[in-house]
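Page 42, continued from yesterday. The earlier attempt failed because a stray header line got pasted into the input along with the sequence. Redoing it now with the clean sequence only.
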Amino acid sequence: MTRCAFLMLTTALLAAPACAETAGIEKDELTLGFIKLTDMAPLAIAAEKGFFEDEGLYVTLEAQSNWKVLLDRTISGEIDGAMMLAGQPLAATIGYGTAGEVVTPVALDLNGNAITLANAVWDEMKPGVALDAGGRPRHPISAAALKPVIEARAEAGETFNLGMVFPVSTHNYELRYWLAAGGIHPGFYEPGDVSGQTGGDVLISVTPPPQMPATLEAGTILGYAVGEPWNQAAVKKGIGVPVIADADIFARNPEKVFGLTRAFAEANPNTTLALTKALIRAGMWLDASPDNRREAVDILSRPDYVGADAGVIANSMTGTFEYEAGDVRPAPDFNLFFRENATFPYYSDAVWTLTQMRRWGQIAEAKPDSWYDETAKRVYRPDLYRAAAEALVADGLATAADFDFDADGYRDPTDGFIDGIAFDGTKPNAYIDSLPIGLKGDQSTAEAVTN
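This time it went through. Structure tokens are written below.
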């Protein structure tokens, strides 16, 4: 008997409980994958608060060793679905890396990452950072302050190694965006070469999130882009300084999504509906109150989930963020789980990710604007989201005002980037061409490096 059924039985003479099991579940026992990051919170909350069970689902959450394993196991059917990087379903669908038709019916969060540099690097760049009236570094900090540090090390014959979590991760694109906006070339990808280091002023490579602090401490990398709690962990260990949060690079940037194979979604439409409803409810709960966030911190600190110190997790999850040790600043939007339509799978979010794949050469050839629209619509499924949202309203668990039911799938154009360059998801090629560093028009990587 599900929790919802039990509540309905035991409260038959009282008001109806806040649950409404989805009818016609095709597969009720599911295994879902995640990586040990705080933005796996919607999955943990859906499990711990009974939202999965309310929908008639019995879910096992299983930590995966890295993003490639997580994606491969989802596509092979070893697990039923997973928290994914926003770029993973898109890359898989267009055949970049592991190929497979993956769809996302619901986004999991916006924002949530930061860029951390080793203490020695921060000490070298800090003289070039503007200060506020109180003598603290003025945020957002431009990568222009890092450029002379990289140049000095290059003159000394030293490479400047940076880490990110996966080639098609938002972390990779945010790190590259920040560097490029400061006049630093992050390097191109080439066909058959997934290193992404061609023509770069730095060498960016993959490091799994939980290993970031140790790799930084060992000196293998000099900085990294990662989600929480691994930036705040560097502060606590005294080995690094987060210099910029991703909301200051691209406000309300797409971060994690929930991914399923197209085959699973089509074979199990009611199960997919139930999963989407439960994850939306989890996002709503997370953003409903500060008390809920504090409770979520305790849940996430458990070994089965993130398994990090609760105090470290709390820094970003409860509305603050620590840069240099003791420099704690308000960060109410560091993670958005439901506010600002964070769970809606907007086509424009998918298009932005695709533009960065083209900008850096992961998409080797120029594509027309129509291709970006068609690809976004193959992967992002606002139709499935709307069905779940409407069901939640019908169940009395949400109101119509909670959702963007009038959306055409595209957010309004935004200039909420560190360089102020505007992005219109309906005009991806014009956007790509407006970015000072990166591929333009029908350029190949070889042509761009030569020029």
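Notes: The domain at 3-111+254-402 is CATH 3.40.190.10 (D-Maltodextrin-Binding Protein; domain 2).
Reminder to self: strip header lines before submitting.
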